[in-house]
Amino acid sequence: MSWFILLLTIALVCGSAPVFADDDERYLNCMKSFDCGNIKGVGYPFSGSDRPDYCGYPGFELGCSNQDPEITIMRSTYKLLGINNQSRTLNVSRSDYTENLCPALLSNTSLNPNLLNYTSDHAEVTLYYGCPSPSAPALSSQFTCDINDTVMMGYFITVNLSVISMTDPSLISYLTTCNNSVKVPALQSAVMPILANPTVAQLLEAINQGFELEWSANDSLCDTCKSSGGQCGYNQTTTAFTCYCADQPQGFECSASPQAPSQSTKKKSRNSPLEIGLSSAGAVIGAFVGCWMLAFIQRRRRKAALEKTEELPIATPSSKGLATSTNLSQTTPSLTSLKSDIDKGSTYFGVRVFSYDELEEATNFFDSSRELGDGGFGIVYYGVLRDGHEVAVKRLYENNMKRTEQFMNEIEILAHLQHRNLVKLHGCTSRHSREFLQID
């Protein structure tokens, strides 16, 4: 039981250390996810917040403003509405068109085609600003803006200009006289209702639903890296994909020798500093409690063993046994009385009681080279008494809790044995619970 408590204590102490104390820092950092608002658990190819830039692919930086997730694309900020890791698509919307159609800066939507591309559910709404008077009679989608203290009239259309040019060429000529035009992406499913109800409110609703983009950022390499237990990232120095492993970064996958962390371990690595601190404190307290329990149990055992040694009565001979020494009491003498009798010299169950010093001398202080083997409950030594008598001295184990009772029983049994094929008990002794039998 004490060994179990000791091992438990060691485990608690070891458990208070960081799980990934020897792991690569970049590997640990890239295990963290981006969490903001309703967007949670975002990993590669994105970076931002707790994820350093080397954990994501360039061009996929995320931000969090008042629990509103954002993404920067070609130096323009978009609201991040959703991410689908399976289809590798994200849903974003123009943050400058959230409340009205009059942003302070008029700019088109620009993408890096090597990284992001529109999905098939894509449509564009074209907005024209600073159009001249009188208004175009064929358009009902008119709006006005006050941008930088300048009031201007504008229009929006949801169909391709090539279609309009076939039906009304004069309208195309009019729209080309407007000062600016901006193309805002949207979903086809969201734009369709505008055809029947071309109002500003309907257009804002469609724009705020966002549009879908499909990303491409060494995703197949990342799949290989993840399957080997690594974390995907990007080396800013070599400008290449990197697989961060527990021991060190690798090219595309981790070697087979390091063990990949389990899902439960990954979850632990994302714990907040408060959770880690509480866990460590609990482990340290547990270690102290375990050490105290171990010391307490061992102290109780030592005390119990001492009391048992001092108080356990020496078994009296049975009615069938030989007459005992006159120096021993007929009742229940203690080990202390037996020790005093040893000093005086006596017999017990008809066998001689030797002094402890004489047995030390006979066995050369219980030299290990004189060990003959292990008997029941003790080690047997070869010895030569002062009278030249050769004997086998059996020394009972110290850690035997019932050694006194066993010692006395063995004396009684051996004292009665008389057979040519069996050893003969020559004597015994006891000194501070170190019991001995001397056998011819």
Automatic annotation (TrEMBL):
Keywords: ATP-binding, Glycoprotein, Kinase, Membrane, Nucleotide-binding, Signal, Transferase, Transmembrane, Transmembrane helix
Residues engaged in binding ATP: K394
UniProt keyword annotation of DNA damage present: no
Transmembrane segments: 276-297
MF term (GO), any: protein serine/threonine kinase activity
Single GO cellular component term: membrane
Protein name: non-specific serine/threonine protein kinase
Domain Protein kinase: 366-440
Lineage: Eukaryota, Viridiplantae, Streptophyta, Embryophyta, Tracheophyta
Subcellular location per the Swiss-Prot or TrEMBL entry: Membrane
Membrane topology: Single-pass membrane protein
InterPro entries for this protein: Kinase-like_dom_sf, Prot_kinase_dom, Protein_kinase_ATP_BS, Ser-Thr/Tyr_kinase_cat_dom, WAK_assoc_C, WAK_GUB
Signal peptide region: 1-21
